[in-house]
Amino acid sequence: MIFFDPNSLFFKCINDALSGRLEFSHHYYELYGIHPFGFNFDNVDVSYVYLGANYKKLVIDNAFCFLLLQAGWIPSLIFFYLYFMTLLKSSKCKDSYIFLGMMIYAIASYTEGYSLWFSFNYSMIGMYYLYKQNRKFQIGQQDLCTSSSVI
Questions:
Q1: Are the beta carbons of 36 and 73 closer than 8 angstroms?
Q2: Where are the beta strands (DSSP E) in 5-144?
Q3: What is the reported pLDDT for 9?
Q4: Which of 4, 12, 26, 30 has the fewest C-beta atoms under 10 angstroms from its C-beta?
Q5: pTM of the predicted model, to two decimals?
Q6: Tens digit of pLDDT for each residue in 34-61?
Q7: Non-local CB neighbours of 18 within 8 Å, separated by 6+ positions
């Protein structure tokens, strides 16, 4: 979004493969920028023409770009910190199911903005709950994963 160059063959190929998602994100970034606590797109005309189609609604399918533009850079930093700390902890603890779920979430979030909706995130809350419950049953073993140094 930030470093997108429409004249670059590399970015053009990726943008075409993603149905213009990079161009949409870059357009809104150029027009409105990134604010500390986001921007309210409800009160502005967000129509945009791409390949002859006129889009009347805000079209940002990349959840990470959407988070930066709509929520702002401060909530985005908090989200990314928590996400990467969870990813790091699951890797450190060799919890392959949590790690795999977090990686699938990252891939899906790159192409879909819906991954930030609560209705899609309750599964991550459930995964975290099971993860914490699993740690409680490991009493008697030295468990580096329960140390407070990561999360």
A1: yes
A2: 48-50, 53-55
A3: 92
A4: 30
A5: 0.68
A6: 999 988 888 777 776 666 667 777 777 7
A7: 61, 111
